[in-house]
Design brief:
Radius of gyration: 22 Å
Helix content: 40-55%
Structural class: alpha/beta
Order of helices and strands: HHHHHHHHHHEHHEHHEHHEHEHHEHEHH
Number of domains: 4
Number of helices: 22
Distance between the termini: 66 Å
Low-confidence stretches: 1-5
Oligomer: single chain
Strand content: 5-15%
Number of strands: 7
Length: 446
């Protein structure tokens, strides 16, 4: 029987990712971009299995269904940007839903096409001042982290009149939860820390680990960083903080400012590569930052050996613990049960293709039941705080909130602290979200 010819309907092969061709002048051609957008949108319109993921797909399908032709050719090209603006590059469509990703003949990479569109938009200068500010996390953090300034900013962010003013002037939604700023940063709290452990390799891990602090965990929420050090020290791992850091570049990537991503890479990669040369493995407590170093930078700089070296040494924290557990190197002398935990698996952790490592570790704790929620929270760091997208973000998080409510759990939280707080905002019952590393410390009783 002759082999079938023509394009396959679906794809059973593992998805592969092509490098991002962002140095090619055609990458920024609006005409070329719109030709590709129309091709991909037509495929998506004929499939529609990603409709439940984010607001990009319902927006696209509504545009098609409300057009004169009921096809993509009936949608005004100017309306394509409405689809682009709702994409926050979670990558779930690529890795969990789309049957047409490479190596399929149709070569569909929706997130990277949206990234290209954002880059074209940024190069045109079609970017709001608000978005430039929100993605300048280092600059804002340094200013807002000054002791007196931090108190004023945190207080103002909780005052309705101030928030109404912020919404009118800057376009930050008055009801969105904004992160607090800490003058007592993670770096200050861990200053002078020395590890008493001696590195003991296990499997792929060296037992010598450097934490990339991240701008958020350093300046906004340092407590989980302290919990991380307590847990990993308790497991005999030799620990240190990376010598220094800038923002990993993910906020600027989502803005389409690829040159700013390149600058962040030039600041971070030499520091991290040096640590790898010294025998350190690498990790971070924000899944987006881990993904940036493991996937996005390698795809942007496929020929940079230092970038590839760092990518190979980067691990999700719970992935690291599970690798050591497989070699009998995890401390399982837990002192306190957690009861029932409603655990939200963050999108940028799920797309790392490491499996449900956080759930697997927490499930080792006696008398603890872990209910995993694999659905996007809709936060994305900046999307949920923007005036025009906040309501959509609350709609996206609603099923997650419902799952947490129905679980009647003793604890809930997410690997992404911002996602956890967005769920907390949706619950509005006074119960705080807790990072899984905090729950693990609690179980150890340390």
């Amino acid at each position: 029987m002759a082999a079938p010819t023509g394009p396959r309907e679906g794809n059973l092969e593992a998805p592969t990712r092509h490098p991002l061709d962002w140095k090619n002048p055609d990458f920024y051609s609006e005409q070329s971009l719109f030709t590709e957008l129309e091709r991909v949108f037509d495929i998506c319109h004929g499939c529609r299995r990603c409709v439940s993921l984010c607001q990009s797909f319902p927006t696209l399908f509504d545009l098609v269904d409300e057009s004169d032709t009921f096809e993509v050719d009936g949608v005004a090209k100017a309306d394509y940007w409405k689809v682009v603006d709702h994409c926050y590059l979670c990558d779930l469509c690529y890795l969990t839903k789309c049957p047409y990703v490479p190596p399929h003949d149709w070569n569909l990479d929706f997130p990277h096409l949206m990234l290209r569109a954002k880059a074209v938009k940024f190069q045109k200068g079609d970017i709001k001042t608000r978005d430039r500010i929100l993605t300048s996390t280092d600059t804002v953090g340094k200013l807002a982290g000054i002791p007196v300034v931090a108190q004023v900013v945190n207080a103002a962010n909780k005052m309705k009149p101030a928030r109404k003013l912020l919404q009118g002037v800057l376009g930050v939604h008055a009801d969105a939860r904004l992160p607090e700023y800490q003058s007592n940063t993670l770096r200050k709290r861990l200053k002078g820390h020395t590890s008493n452990n001696v590195a003991e390799p296990a499997g792929k891990t060296t037992g010598k680990l450097a934490l990339f602090a991240t701008c958020y965990m350093n300046r906004n929420e340092p407590a989980p960083g302290e919990d991380f050090f307590a847990v990993f020290e308790h497991n005999g791992i030799e620990l240190t903080l990376a010598e220094k850091e800038q923002c990993c570049g993910m906020p600027k990537l989502e803005l389409g400012d690829l040159e700013a991503v390149a600058k962040a890479k030039e600041a971070n990669i030499p520091v991290l590569a040096k640590m790898v040369d010294q025998g350190y493995d690498l990790t971070a407590l924000i899944p987006s930052c881990v993904l940036m170093f493991k996937q996005e930078l390698p795809l942007m700089f496929p020929d940079d050996e230092q970038v590839q070296k760092v990518a190979q040494a980067f691990y999700d924290p719970f992935e690291y613990l599970m690798l050591r557990h497989k070699e009998g190197k995890l401390n399982t002398a837990f002192q306190q049960p957690l009861g029932k935990v409603a655990y939200h698996a963050a999108c940028h952790q799920r797309v790392q293709n490491v499996g449900q490592k956080t759930r697997e570790i927490l499930a080792l704790i006696p008398d603890s039941t872990i209910e995993i929620i694999e659905r996007c929270s809709g936060h994305d760091g900046t999307y949920a705080v923007k005036k025009e997208f906040h309501e959509a973000s609350m709609k996206i998080v609603k099923p997650v909130v419902s799952r947490v409510q129905k679980a009647e759990a003793d604890h809930y939280g997410s690997d992404c602290a911002m996602a956890g707080h967005h769920i907390e905002h949706g619950l509005a019952d006074g119960r705080p979200a807790q990072h899984p590393i905090t729950l693990l410390r609690k179980a150890y009783g340390i």
